[in-house]
Amino acid sequence: MASACSTSPSSPGYEKIPNTSIRILRTVSSVRRFRKPLTLDSRSVALVPTMGALHAGHLSLIRAAARDNHHVIVSIYVNPAQFGVREDLGSYPVTWEADCEALAKLDRELADDGENLGRISAVFAPTTGEMYPAGFPGQEPDSKGSFVTITPVGEVLEGASRPTFFRGVATVCMKLFNVCQPDRVYFGQKDVQQTVVIKRLVEDFLMPIEQVVIVPTARDQEDGLALSSRNVYLGERRRKVANVLYRALKAAEEAYAAGEGKRDREGVLGAAQKVMEETLAEQMKLSPSERVKFEVDYLSLADPDTMLELETVDTKKGGILSGAVRFLPVEEPKEGEDLGHSGGPLVRLIDNIILPPK
């Protein structure tokens, strides 16, 4: 079986995904050599940052980038700075071969679609030594090093549960933006607080990026579960219950849409909490060999610009419904049961729904 990467004999020194023109760039200097002539030729460049384990959600970002730009760079880098010391860095899925195959297939589709301005031109896949030349500064909240912090938006919700997360995200994105010099960057709405942090990063640091493009969340067509690289941890049993957060947020959205009297915090989030409580109660009636246990980390009704909590939604501005749920490991596995990737550890899933202005 051929390797998912090779050096093209027609382009000495450039590693490529086989049977494609997609270059694999592993160093900052190689990206800059690749990028410079595109600036001189006035060709637009998009960046789609990922941590690999590509799924349909990532591919939708790349399709959107190819529609509007001459060249698309996809970064694949599992950034340790955004993982806490007790989080799943060691077991995070690394699927380089499959990722390259997915990008090659998608690039062929893009080539056949006349509606696209461009295609995938390069994959930036650096090492941690390349991204952190002074040495990786660590994952503890009080670690010393060169960091970018965006406050207060990075301190609430996900930031409160994972205190080093947005520091790591903002730092690595600043590095990726500086290396790739994109005209536009593409992120998914599923990580809605991250999109607010990135917009603030670009604005506050006067970065020469024309647009931060937010692409709607990609979901399972049958039950609405948001696509995520972490879904592989769920296994068959927990996967059947995993859309509870989406169902709860949909209930809150319906409460918001129902009328003026239910646009306050208690009325909107109360509907979501009811779905959570009823679902957990149903699961706890089952035996340990059948049930799924989960814990609600948070449910939020927040301002779309700051992610700070709202008591009442200003219908002229709208809001953001979001939440996080921890699915506990299966209590009593059945013989031969699919527990998920890496033995089915605790899985923390997030989701959100935008409440548009009225």
From TrEMBL:
<dbReference type="InterPro" id="IPR042176">
    <property type="entry name" value="Pantoate_ligase_C"/>
</dbReference>
<dbReference type="InterPro" id="IPR003721">
    <property type="entry name" value="Pantoate_ligase"/>
</dbReference>
<keyword id="KW-0436">Ligase</keyword>
<keyword id="KW-0547">Nucleotide-binding</keyword>
<keyword id="KW-0067">ATP-binding</keyword>
<protein>
    <recommendedName>
        <fullName>Pantoate--beta-alanine ligase</fullName>
        <ecNumber>6.3.2.1</ecNumber>
    </recommendedName>
</protein>
<keyword id="KW-0566">Pantothenate biosynthesis</keyword>
<comment type="similarity">
    <text>Belongs to the pantothenate synthetase family.</text>
</comment>
<dbReference type="GO" id="GO:0005524">
    <property type="term" value="F:ATP binding"/>
</dbReference>
<comment type="pathway">
    <text>Cofactor biosynthesis; (R)-pantothenate biosynthesis; (R)-pantothenate from (R)-pantoate and beta-alanine: step 1/1.</text>
</comment>
<dbReference type="Pfam" id="PF02569">
    <property type="entry name" value="Pantoate_ligase"/>
</dbReference>
<dbReference type="GO" id="GO:0004592">
    <property type="term" value="F:pantoate-beta-alanine ligase activity"/>
</dbReference>
<dbReference type="GO" id="GO:0015940">
    <property type="term" value="P:pantothenate biosynthetic process"/>
</dbReference>
<dbReference type="InterPro" id="IPR014729">
    <property type="entry name" value="Rossmann-like_a/b/a_fold"/>
</dbReference>
